[in-house]
Design goal:
2 domains; 51% helix; 14% strand
Amino acid sequence: MPDQRAYNIDYQRITVERKMTIVKLQNAKTEEIKRQDGLTGCRILYVEDNEVNQYLAQQILKPWNVHIEFAENGKEAISRLKEKDFDIVLMDIQMPIMNGIEATKAIRNDKDLKSDIPIIGFTADIMMGTKIAAAKAGMNEIVMKPFNRDELYGIVTALLEKQLSGQ
């Protein structure tokens, strides 16, 4: 039987590393911020029903110098997309009123909207069925919560570059 103390030590080490990561994000050095300034001015519609997650997203994405607007559900997201021009949508998959999968289908099928806008879905659901449904609905990428800022930056820039090049 494995030594239980080893697991406790590893768990404590992981907890400490997580706290250090959060502190590092909040006290980011100038050179860390500069390497993620390629999205300056980008207009992001972030669709998330949880206010705490909205706040965290705003703080995490602040160094990108982007313009972020929030919608609390898919129905509100569709209304915002009809009112304003956005470059990309970051959308929670599980929300009340209209979830992210339903909203993505509606966006992709609405001739009055920029139906090719990149949509990145966020989920804490590890079930493959959710990921398949999101892809079938037309989401370009699915990112697991909690997300890594650097990984998300890479996905966002890749999707925007792809869209600009017409691919």
